[in-house]
């Protein structure tokens, strides 16, 4: 099985959306008060905003003619606030592999391609968010050397 990584095109929209939708459905089942079940998780306008930009990238993994994974990246800067050190970092909006192709090293390859992309743009770090319920993702990212930087806490006020 040869996996090829490449920059996504407009024609890849539906395949990318289908892969990200798998993860969205997992999130909607675990946290139905936070995540909706949608047919199109990735809005077309947002997807198109990654085209022809040096500060954004969608990388797809494909086997033959089938897209089996995706990483969506963008460069960011810390907020302009005196208490924060100014920094430039890459943000990994999405990293997803189709369920049938998980645990075959595709996610690791997409992650490494994301690191390489970020380094090429002189990012100081690569950052992402993971929801606490998603233990599989937490283990995956920890295995790659990522560390927890902060947590968002909540209190349900409707009880």
TrEMBL record:
What is the name attached to this protein's record? N-acetyltransferase domain-containing protein
The keyword Acyltransferase appears for this protein: yes
Q: Which GO terms describe its molecular function?
A: acyltransferase activity, transferring groups other than amino-acyl groups
Q: Which Pfam families match?
A: Acetyltransf_1
Locate the N-acetyltransferase domain: which residues?
3-159
What is the species listed in this Swiss-Prot or TrEMBL entry? Answer: Paenibacillus oryzisoli
Sorted alphabetically, which keywords does the UniProt record give? Acyltransferase, Transferase
* Tree of life domain: Bacteria
Has the keyword Transmembrane helix been applied to this entry? Answer: no
């Amino acid at each position: 099985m040869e996996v090829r990584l490449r920059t996504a095109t407009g024609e890849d929209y539906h395949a990318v959306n289908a892969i990200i939708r798998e993860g969205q459905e997992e999130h909607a089942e675990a946290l139905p008060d936070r995540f909706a079940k949608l047919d199109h998780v990735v809005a077309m306008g947002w997807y198109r905003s990654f085209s022809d930009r040096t500060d954004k990238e969608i990388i797809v993994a494909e086997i033959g003619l089938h897209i089996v994974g995706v990483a969506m990246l963008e460069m960011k800067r810390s907020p302009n606030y005196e208490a924060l050190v100014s920094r430039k970092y890459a943000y990994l909006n999405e990293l997803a592999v189709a369920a049938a192709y998980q645990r075959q090293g595709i996610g690791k390859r997409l992650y490494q391609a994301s690191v390489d992309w970020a380094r090429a743009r002189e990012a100081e770090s690569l950052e992402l968010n993971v929801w606490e319920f998603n233990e599989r993702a937490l283990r995956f990212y920890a295995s790659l050397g990522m560390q927890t930087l902060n947590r968002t806490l909540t209190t349900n006020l409707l009880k």
